[in-house]
Amino acid sequence: MVIRRIAELLEAEVILGEDKLDMEVDMAFSSDMMSDVLAYVTGRTVLLTGLVNEHVIRTAEMVDLECIVFVRGKLPTQEIIDKAKENGMVLLATTHTLYCTSGILYSNGLTGIGRRK
Amino acid sequence: MPLIAEVFPVEKDDFVTAGEASAKIKRTLKKLGVDSALLRRISVCSYEVELNLVIHSLGGTIDFQVTQDSVMLLVKDRGPGIANLELAMREGWSTAPESVRMMGFGAGMGLPNMKRNADEFDIKSEAGVGTEILMKFRLK
Fold first, then answer.
1. A61 to chain B: nearest residue by CA?
2. pLDDT tens for each residue of B45-102
3. Of A83, B128, B135, B137, which has the fewest beta carbons less than 10 angstroms from its beta carbon?
4. For chain B, what is the domain count?
5. Which residues, at least 6 apart from A109, have a Cβ–Cβ distance to it below 8 Å?
6. Pick among B46, B51, B93, B115 to test the A interface (most A CBs inside 10 A)
7. CA-angle at B50, arms to B48 and B56, nearest 5°
8. What's the CA gap between A55 and A59, in Å, rounded?
9. Cα B128 to Cα A74, B16, B58, B74, B125, distances in angstroms
């Protein structure tokens, strides 16, 4: 699914990366625990999270995540946005909850990461 | 002789710079043209271990070495050591305080995640002394 479609479905605000909205992602992963992001994320994945701090960006950098959706109306600080910009990321923000954000994307065909063996 | 050898000091409770050593390691390996899937595994391990030093140790070092055919991360801390290594290697078991969980860490995934992502993983720890972790990754 292209990021532009994700933004439309979630009625999300594009905080950063307007020029990268045609980038594709294959899966989504929802979590407020960055430890779990490090343990689960592979491939071209969009992260859905209600956690807003610089560690989210650092974690995303480590696992090559290029798109983050902040849920529940949470907005990143300028410092966080700057750090994401250094890494060429797309940042979106939606007022939906994490559960609803996940449900909207899943029901529109964006699958999740499979169960770990 | 290693092609690259660098030692990164990591301090206890330094959440502001946490991850900078791993970001440098990742950039260095990317420049060397390391395959992206392998690079991700190495980055996850270095970031997990760097966070462990910040969260759990009294401070320590990450010794990063690259040879023709491997990448090595040798991590040593100044204590306090792990009381029960078997429990520490179990997914979901964590001694991290609530303040660390609020930042999104301390899910008890760190050590098992390192073991899963490294080609070789070895941990030695003595309560009251310190912990040493060796991780190796094959480049070929």
1. B23
2. 999 999 999 999 999 999 999 999 999 999 999 999 999 999 999 999 999 999 999 9
3. B128
4. 1
5. A1
6. B51
7. 90
8. 6
9. 42, 27, 11, 20, 9
* Residue (of B120, B114, B69) closest to A38 by Cα position: B114
Look at chain B and count its residues.
140
* CATH code for position B129: 3.30.565.10
Interval A3-28: pLDDT, tens: 999 999 999 999 999 999 999 999 99
pLDDT of the residue at B1: 79
Six-digit token string for A116:
């770990």
Is B46 within 8 Å of B26 (Cβ atoms)? yes
Supply the range of the domain harboring residue B65: 4-138
- How far apart CA A15 and CA A92 sit, in angstroms, is 5
Per-residue confidence at A83, pLDDT binned at 50, 70, 90? very high
Domains of chain A (ranges; CATH) run 3-112 (3.40.1390.20)
Other beta carbons within 10 Å of A102: 19
Instruction: Using pLDDT thresholds of 50, 70 and 90, give the confidence band for residue B8.
Output: very high
A70 Cα to chain B: minimum distance (Å): 14
Q: Are B136 and B70 in contact (CB under 8 A)?
A: yes
pLDDT exceeds 80 at position A117: no
Backbone angles phi, psi at B87, to 5 degrees: -65, -40
Of B118, B123, B49, B115, which is closest to residue B81 (Cα–Cα)? Answer: B123
